[in-house]
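Friendly challenge for the regulars: who can give me the structure tokens for this chain first? No prize, just bragging rights.
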Amino acid sequence: MSSETDIHNTTVPPQPTLAPNTQIPDFSLSGKICLVSGGGRGLGLTLTEALLEAGAKVYALDHLPEPTPEFIEVQQRAKVLNTELQYRCVDVRDTDLLNAVVEAIANHEGRIDGLIAAAAIQQETPALEYAAKDSNALLEVNVTGVFMTAQAVARQMVRFGNGGSIALVASMSGTVVNRGLICPVYNASKAAVIQLARNLAAEWGQYNIRVNTLSPGYILTSMLEMLFVEYPERREKFAKENMLGRLSNPGEYRGAAVFLLSNASSFMTGSDLRIDGGHAAW
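First reply, four minutes later:
Bragging rights claimed.
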């Protein structure tokens, strides 16, 4: 048994160092087939590019009839990265088409390894004025659409027996209420996504399928910029509500996306990864 002196005199062995430009293997997605719903633009496209840089082949699913110019740029860059980005026009509310497209991808590739479900819509309306049809429309995309996308992918993961990782994009709004932003149904939808992921993780763990959520804070996207045109005072107000005193940009969630779909998070499931600048930690 070592004495106290022995412990204090123990020399810590030198830590191995990586050669320049050497990737950390656990974060590699080389050879993986990943899908990103809502991957045609915005945050979804940014996360798509991160998966490509980690080595994955990615299929972006989006309701836009044609990919955006920004998407085409990322698609061209994928070739330089020695991988591939494909586009499929799919509305997550069309369950039959969604399942057919996902199955066709799985049949072609012989596997599906990962999913980021980022498709969502937003509506700011006071609760006393919210129409049932508007509430149902938002929940159909943000909750049912996310669920059906995860289900379609999980079915293929089970069929091929390789397991996989699913990340559902939720929001800090699923944990806290955004002060001054009147979005009762959107916030409820994101809370539902967080709880949905826990349940899917519980059911699908037996198939080696991990399910987690990514909960961003305020992201400076074109959608938020348009909101600031109508409510310019919110730009400064929103920034002050977190501990870093600023808004985030889409690129700050790239590492989280790769982490959640790679072996770096191999023992993580049923969890919510909230990245909000400390907004919900006050």
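DSSP finds nine helices and seven strands in the chain. The CA atoms of residues 60 and 87 lie 5 Å apart. Your move, everyone else.
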